[in-house]
Amino acid sequence: MSAPFSWIRPEPWGVQIVPADCWIDPGKAVDRALVTHGHADHARGGHGETYATPETLAIMALRYRTGVADESGEIPTKAIPVEYGQTIRLPGEVDATYIPAGHVLGSAQILLEHAGERVVITGDYKRRADPTCAPFQVVPCDIFITEATFGLPVFTHPPIEEEMAKLTKALADNPDKSVLVGAYALGKAQRVIAELRAAGHSEPIYLHGAMEKMCRLYEEHGVPLGELRLVSDHGKDDMRGSIIVAPPSALNDRWSRRLPEPITAMASGWMRVRGRARQRGVELPLVISDHADWCELTQTIDEVDPQEVWVTHGREEALLRWCELGQRKARALALVGREDEDE
Amino acid sequence: MEEFAALLDTLVYTTSRNRKLAMIAEYLRETPDPDRGWALAALTGELDFPAVKSSTIRNLMKDRVDPVLWTLSRDFVGDTAETASLLWPEPEARDGEVPSVAQVVDQLSALNRNTAPKELPKVLDRLDANGRFALIKLATGGMRIGISARLAKTAFAQAFDVSVEEVEEYWHALEAPYPELFAWGADGGDPPDVSNRPRFRPFMLAHPLEDTEVDLGEYAAEWKWDGIRVQLVRVAGETRLYSRSGDDISATFPELLDVLPMDAVLDGELLVRGASQGGEEGGAASFNALQQRLGRKTVSKKILKEAPAFVRLYDALLIEGDDIREQPWSKRRAALEALMAKLPDSHFDISAVVEADDFKHLAEIREGAREDAIEGLMLKRRDSPYIAGRKVGLWYKWKHDPLLIDAVLMYAQRGSGKRSSFYSDYTFGCWDGDPDGGAELLPVGKAYSGFTDAELKKLDRLVRQTTLNRFGPVREVERTLVFEVAFDSVHTSKRHKSGLAMRFPRIHRIRWDKPVHEADRIESLRALIRD
Asked: How high is the ipTM of this complex?
């Protein structure tokens, strides 16, 4: 019998499940990968087999051609769908169950069970309601491997209604201008649009070209987004008084010159800190995040109540300190390539 | 307080100068007295509440938040006021009304060191996060939100359609919350009567010469001395000394307060006695010596004796009640020269005009003056009136080219404000011998400017990837990167291990290509000392 939990091994570029010879969210191509969700720092192409939810696989097919046949008709990267709540048996007597994480469409926590030991790896998650994805569920376990993107007590995300009110007010105050919202193309953009619709905003919303396919994919998976138009199909005057959604990289890009006097907004948890908004030249910061804030992170650890907490990425020092103050056992994994998400 | 907090918040996020002006102007028009006056004082940095310091806030927080979590948060956010406003525990219910700016100012003024820790929390509990940010900024002074005093005064001028020069003229003679200023500007009353109060007149400033050549028939040349620019004002027998920004620094240089024998407003360079600048005849010490005297609120007899200050005069604005600012430079110069006979040599001399045959000759003189630790030359149009601010074509500064060395990045510290969470302050070092023969790097200076935002990102990434050690907000990094550092001069210093201190160091170029052992040695830097 080997040492407790020796079957799960964190490496800088992913977490290995040793007896199953597979990796969770590996940063390089491997034979067998379990993927929590479709963001580029967790999902990548080139794995021999990818286990993920059907929604995540659809996103990966779009972005990396995962599970898509090549010219010869072969499928070089196999996609194995796992539904929420479904348990699959991996080699080496490891069971993996996918549980909603509430982060983006298709996002999952993965519960791993082996030799009577239970490990949950959250991937990225949040606890707030989100009309575009299934809500997070608390799963008891021995080791809780959590993210900590917003692992500092200064990060408390306000209710999304307040942020939506800021956005619609800016629009109403400036009928001759436009509001350009920088939002991550997968997840954040669709959530902002869906929340706008829920707040009664029924006018057409304009999209940067890079957003179109992902919005369609969300709609195909049952997330209605209302009338969406492409910026490239319209002139300045059409877009006056409208909301335009674009990836954050486009905010200060030449691309935005085609917009009618845009007020630059950005939807991100980082907007809680003034300096961060100023660095990006953001005039209308919207504190909207798909990650757990400090209260959610700590509340979740208390609810899960594991024997040990492992922190994968983000502001891990502060979360470790919090664990120490509460006399919880904790360690940092410091995975590479996952700095500063949520943009 | 809510309106003021909202103003601060939008100012933080607005980059356009015009929009900032418009927002401050709107606030000044729509807010009643005396709130708007106090707000203006806060924006221009005129408020001071000695009982509330940044440390007061830190101590309040450390009673409420774990010190480690506080430090990590402060380090990430990069601003004490903002961190505290975010971490302040929300009260279960807000009791009492949100106070006005004037009420907050009254409360803060009434505090002392003992009562502040008890009373401040009560005010903080009545505000939301934005309000707390505004309150702490107001209480601790120094807004650091990208609003200069000049911008706030310009906004006042714009709000009430008056000239900013007039606002500046009255400004320094008035006190917050400036009822006379608003009575004049906002309510169409008489201009404030400031005739019998000493006040600062905005300086005339120069543009860099760049590639321009000027005709010495039209322009006169003077040395640009390496001290601090000051304005000495005597009105009705009372003398004040103002720095370039209009701060009253009289208390720091008491020896200059009873030596001006007539009412006048004079423009000059403040220097301390010594032998470095201008050699024998100049009789001024290096900037390094002057620096020992700056920022002191009380001055000992010892230091008055060791480093006595004097003013090397450049210009005269008023002489014995006569305002000569409209007159051409040549006439003002003549008036100043005539005045010199009545001023004591012990505390005044005149900055000599540099005679040259032509521009080329002047360039040679400028080159040759390097060793005198003079900053360079000033070129002044002979017919220029004395005009506040920087008007193109009237005055030029022709500074020496900076000195350059190659140094190695050793430590990086997180910045604040716009650069919060980025490693943007760099300490660099030079070799104390032959790097291939086991020499070590000694820190020689610190720079936080001279690179683009894109370069900052790249540097930040490098710092994170090559970290050897962490000391709070500082990271020690592997020695992999060479900076070409520009600086104005270098002096001996007891404060640094290398025994050197550079003046105004900035990153000139990032030498991604250069191996670290090719960086300069301390001895090459030491050879540039001109103390």
From this structure: 0.94
